[in-house]
Amino acid sequence: MTLEPDLFPLKVQKKQLIARDIWLFRLVHPKGHALPIFTAGAHLTVKTPGGQKRNYSLCNNPFETAYCELAVKHERLGRGGSQSMVEQVQEGDLLQVSMPQNDFGLSDQIKDVIFIAGGIGVTPLLSMLRQMLDARSMHATARFRFYYCARNPEGAAFVDTLQELNNASELGDVNFHFDDGNPDQGLDLWPVLEKPTAAHIYCCGPQGLMDAVRDMSGHWPQGRVHFESFGASAAQQFGPSEAFEVRLRSTQNTIQVAAHESILEALRKNGHAVPSSCESGTCGSCKLDLISGNVEHRDFVLNDEEKRHHIMVCVSRASSGVIEIGL
Questions:
Q1: Which of 58-72, 135-149, 299-313 is modeled with the greatest confidence?
Q2: At 86, which helix (H) or strand (E)?
Q3: The dihedral of CA 183, 163, 82, 260: what is its sign?
Q4: Residue finishing a domain among 229, 249, 269
Q5: Please, are residues 313 and 274 in contact by the beta-carbon 8 Å criterion?
Q6: Do 202 and 265 fall within a single domain?
Q7: Which strands sit side by side in the sheet containing 310-312, from one edge to the other?
Q8: 222 CB contacts (<8 Å, ≥6 apart)?
Q9: Res 261: pLDDT
Q10: Any idea what the Cα angle at residue 153 is, between residues 82 and 163, rounded to 5°?
């Protein structure tokens, strides 16, 4: 196996179906060495057998160094990354992965946490709960509330694990909510979020859940509400795209971006290497400086202030005229 820069091999020790269309992969060092300690909320970038690079959250206890675990939902109508993992990876195979990276960390100083998970978005929050309940990091007065929303129990990963953690701890409660795919039966989180407290909110899941939590937590203090998206591509939520032009600050050259392609694809086609991972507007890897121009921001990463000066080139586009980027 030819390694890419910044990637190293881990061996698939276990591959297990843990819920409908959700597979657990346990990875170990090929020579049995200890793995790096990570922080809860971290992810690995994995190069799939199909060549795609995807970010998968680590879901085991961060203090565990003998192995690491990630869960992959088989998206049959996706862009091929999860399909490659589920259909091609077998126990004993080597996968190229990155060092753990964390843009969604759980602060050691937080004493009260509200976890809100939707579907496969439970994975980073499970790791956070495990870290929070570990005696090596547990604060004496720590408390948690964990809300896990899914279509049904059969498609919800780690239900038994969460019940076991809940039964073994007196520090909080785990609540499950299954809506059978009916939005009208969704969990009403307003009673939970109506009155701001000293708690921090960590939310991960589909865009609909993220939007609902944002709407209901807008009055919470800044910095208390944290999101990571496991939704579909941001571009899928917008209408038809138009062709436009991108000017590069370094050379003032102009690149044409066709209606059917992203800025990222156009840049690569013209010989410009730009880091990327999810290519769906959720990970932040492809952020570039925005010098000028009007942008239709389609990502789930940038806040309103950051959108003035940055752009995620995997999904966002010019809304009119030419945009100039820092490349």
A1: 58-72
A2: helix 81-88
A3: positive
A4: 229
A5: yes
A6: no
A7: 254-257, 244-248, 317-325, 287-296, 310-312
A8: none
A9: 86
A10: 105
Distance CA 207, CA 231 (A): 5
Instruction: Please report whether residue 107 resides in a domain.
Output: no
Domain of residue 122: give its range: 112-229
Report the alpha-carbon distance of residue 146 to residue 305 in Å, rounded: 30
- 3-class secondary structure, 234: helix
CATH no. for residue 73? 2.40.30.10
pLDDT band at 103 (very low <50, low <70, confident <90, very high): confident
CA 231 to CA 210: how far, in whole Å?
Answer: 9
Angle subtended by helix axes 122-133 and 159-168, to nearest 10:
20
Q: What is the mean pLDDT of residues 64-93?
A: 90
Judged on CB neighbours under 10 Å (0-12, 13-18, 19+), 249 is middle
pLDDT digits (tens, 9 = 90+) for 12-35: 999 999 999 999 999 999 999 999
- Alpha-carbon distance of 213 to 215, in angstroms, equals 5
Burial label, 271 (beta-carbon count in 10 A; 0-12, 13-18, 19+): exposed
End of a domain among 42, 70, 97? 97
Question: H/E element holding 11?
Answer: strand 8-19
Sequence-ordered alpha helix ranges (H) in 114-218: 122-133, 159-168, 190-193, 207-216
SS3 256: strand
CA distance 324 to 327: 9
Comparing CA positions, the residue from 279, 286, 283 lying closest to residue 312 is: 286
